[in-house]
Amino acid sequence: MRRCRFAFAVTALPLLVLTACDWTTFRFGPGRSGHNGGETIIGARNVGQLVKRWSFDTASVAGGPLLIGDPVVAHGSVYVPANATDVTGTSVLYGRDARTGIARWSAPFPPDLLGRGQQSLSAPAAGNGLVYVGHIGISGAGMGTMYGGGITGFAEGDGAQRWSSTFFAGGVSGPALANHHVYSTALLNTFLIGVFSGLAAWDAGPSGQSEFLGPSSGARTASASAPAVVSGVAYIGSDTGNLDAVDAAGLTNCTPTPPSVPPSSPSRTCAALWSTSAGGPISSTPAVTGGVVYFGSDDTKLYAVAAGGCGAPNCAPLWTGATGGAVRSSPAVANGVVYVGSADGKLYAFAAGGCGAATCTPLWTAATGGAINSSPAEANGVVYVGSDDGRIYAFRSAGCGAATCLPRWSYATGAAVKSSPAVAHGMVYVGSDDGRLYAFGLPQ
Question: Which of 130, 250, 317, 345 is least buried, going by the fewest C-beta atoms within 10 A?
Fold first, then answer.
């Protein structure tokens, strides 16, 4: 079992911060495994004792409820995006004390000067002393659609803006931090470059220089998958149904952009090293671990693909797992099992190594009362997931010895839980469409 490294942070109340076990990015880290191997406080034996330690109601500070996104945890704080529900609203990135919920800072993203095209915020990522968040504003329609935004970095301590990406492109997925780069999904429509929806990379240094784009789905809608970055390769799903593997350094299969493009724009565009085709759009963020890439598709399947490719431009999956609905949930992988939610309302657990056949059946499933758009989080023998039925659930990671399992714990919020849980330092954080961020822990 991976152990946490100890570091101390002095606040108004003494707080032990175990930085190596922070949940710093959507799906835990740049590989998007959804697994915190350093959690030791909450486990299968005591998860049923969880209680709500605190909640934060955005309506109390924003003048109206906001839709709460995916939280991350770093250095004693939890950071969460809250998105406006109409075009005149202001979206906000909040920083709260992870133990008490006390406000630390907030960063508002108002609509444009005409009061339209509100900013939609991605899941944040914490690193380099900053909290990075993607944001995009959309106005107009059809050929007149305009996209504005990018990636902005705020100081962890006081929320001051310290970094911003060059290049006028919307950052519409949770950033990944790796190789001194910031990776995200970009959506833009410009005269010089045209329509683009796909991977984008920026220098994480002070310049924020746009490094490269690619590959693009060529569609006018966002590639909803956030990128996973492992061992020098970035993996990203597209709305056209392709999983693309891209050189994370932006060198192999890349070409310079035209001289007419301004210096602040990307210097290169890149094609995929290889791709795998699914039978539907891919909004499920890939999880990369153990030399395998796992992702879901709207075609109702979970896919497992060799992370190193197959030596050809187009690679077949190692195996697939069938569910009863679209798989927009992102998989979590831990201890030889891959977990993923489905629009049929079930959580599925498959053997990560497959079953020796092209199509695999699950080890076990668990039913909820609504579609699962939340992505599961695994830590210390427990897998957590939200459901559109308004509840967050906890199941024993090893199953229950039967084909269908019941939860060890659940909690009812006031609306759908599309947010993906973050588990760190004996606390579980999740957002709800009721406008609240919830924090759960063992009784004090």
Answer: 345
HEC states along 173-184? CCCEEECCEEEE
Would you state the structure tokens that stand for residue 111, as one six-digit string? Answer: 């609509």
Task: For residue range 358-368, list pLDDT tens digits in order.
Answer: 999 999 999 99
Contact between 170 and 203 (Cβ < 8 Å): no
Torsion of CA 162, 167, 172, 174, to 10 degrees: -40
Q: Which two tokens stand for residue 337?
A: 């099992």
Residue 180 tokens read as 């001194």
On the 0-12 / 13-18 / 19+ scale of CB atoms within 10 A, 341 is buried
State the SS3 of 337-404: EEEEECCCCEEEEEECCCCCCCEECCCEEEECCCCCCCCCEEECCEEEEECCCCEEEEEECCCCCCCE
Q: Give strand pairing partners of 439.
A: 54, 429
Cβ-based neighbours of 269, under 8 Å, separated by 6 or more: 212, 213, 214, 216, 254, 255, 257
Q: Do residues 406 and 386 make contact, with C-beta atoms less than 8 angstroms apart?
A: no
Give all strands of the β-sheet with 242-247 in edge-to-edge order: 228-230, 233-237, 242-247, 274-277
pLDDT for residue 265 is more than 80: no
Q: Which two tokens stand for residue 307?
A: 């992370």
Q: pLDDT tens for residues 389-410?
A: 999 999 999 999 999 999 999 9
Q: Spell out a b/e string for 144-169, using b for 16 or more CB atoms within 10 Å of the CB, else e.
A: eebbbbbbbbbebeebeebbebbbbb
AA identity, residue 427: M
- Residue among 100, 97, 94, 99 at smallest CA distance from 131: 94
Q: Are strands 377-379 and 146-155 parallel, antiparallel or unpaired?
A: unpaired
Is 344 exposed, middle or buried (CB count within 10 Å of its CB: 0-12, 13-18, 19+)? middle
The strand pairing partners of 171, in sequence order, are 186
Q: Please tell me what DSSP assigns to residue 50.
A: -
pTM beyond 0.90, yes or no: yes
Phi, psi of 126 (to 5 degrees): -105, 135
The pairing of beta strand 161-164 with beta strand 146-155: antiparallel
With DSSP H G I counted as helix, E B as strand and the rest as coil, what are the percentages for the chain, rounded to 5?
5, 45, 50
Task: Name the nearest CA neighbour of 338 among 302, 312, 311.
Answer: 302
CA angle (424, 165, 203) in 5-degree steps: 80
